[in-house]
Design a protein that fits this description.
CATH superfamily: Winged helix-like DNA-binding domain superfamily/Winged helix DNA-binding domain
Distance between the termini: 24 Å
Number of domains: 1
Number of strands: 2
Structural class: alpha+beta
Strand content: 5-15%
Organism: Rubricoccus marinus
Keywords: DNA-binding, Transcription, Transcription regulation
CATH architecture: Orthogonal Bundle
Shape: elongated
Protein name: HTH arsR-type domain-containing protein
GO molecular function, one term: DNA-binding transcription factor activity
Pfam family, one: HTH_20
Strand order of the largest sheet: 1-2
Helix content: 55-70%
Length: 100
């Protein structure tokens, strides 16, 4: 495996929840930073959305900048590219041998 499991696991965790995928999709579709709108788009409580954003930030997929009393979030182009490369590497290493 080219990409170590220690690198893939946090990325897989970050992508393993539908709400986090909705957050990523909203940020990608918008192409700009979102502040309070993320709560509206995802349809969850602010505290829940904050927890999901924390996981996405820790995985390097999202960045946040403070704008007054709010934090605005954007996709991290470098983080997204890294995740894409890491998972491509994983799946390229799997050859899908038939066993049954």
């Amino acid at each position: 495996m080219t990409t170590p499991p220690e690198t893939l696991a946090p990325l897989a965790k970050a992508l393993a929840h539908p709400a986090r995928l909705r957050v990523l999709a909203a940020l990608g579709a918008r192409g700009e930073c979102l502040c309070g709108e993320i709560v509206e788009v995802v349809g969850l409580a602010q505290s829940t959305v904050s927890q999901h954003l924390k996981v996405l930030r820790e995985a390097g997929l999202v960045t946040g900048t403070v704008d007054g009393p709010r934090t605005c979030y954007c996709l991290s182009p470098a983080g997204i590219a890294h995740a894409k490369d890491a998972f491509t590497s994983l799946f390229d290493d799997l050859h899908g041998h038939a066993c049954c």
